[in-house]
Amino acid sequence: MSLEQNKAISLKMYQAFDRQDVEEGKKFMAVDIVGQGMDGVTRKGVDQFVQYAISMFAVFPDGCHKVEEVIAEDDKVLTRGIFKGTHKGELMGIPALSTGQKLQRMAKYLKSKSVTIERK
After folding, report:
1. pLDDT (tens digit, 9 = 90+) per residue, 91-104?
2. Which end of the chain is more exposed for a tag (fewer CB within 10 A), N or C?
């Protein structure tokens, strides 16, 4: 796949999950996906990653990603941006604040459809 195709795959995954369209988002994941959420817990496989995403829908029902930069090289895609949403559910012991939250985020994607997320 070309660098532009790899970039497009990562952006399509963000867009699907921002719409809370789990089935569409899964199309852009490899079976060996590895992700680390805001809680620092590493999740392996599509099922664990999707369970985490669904739990975040409850916490930030209007959550969305604003990708500010996408860099591709070889089989890697790096995205940098902001996740924004209204905090409506408990998150890591913090009760719902019902206020807008903005979180800086960075993710590294390896190979087309194979994802490793590193929160920085």
Report:
1. 888 899 888 888 77
2. C
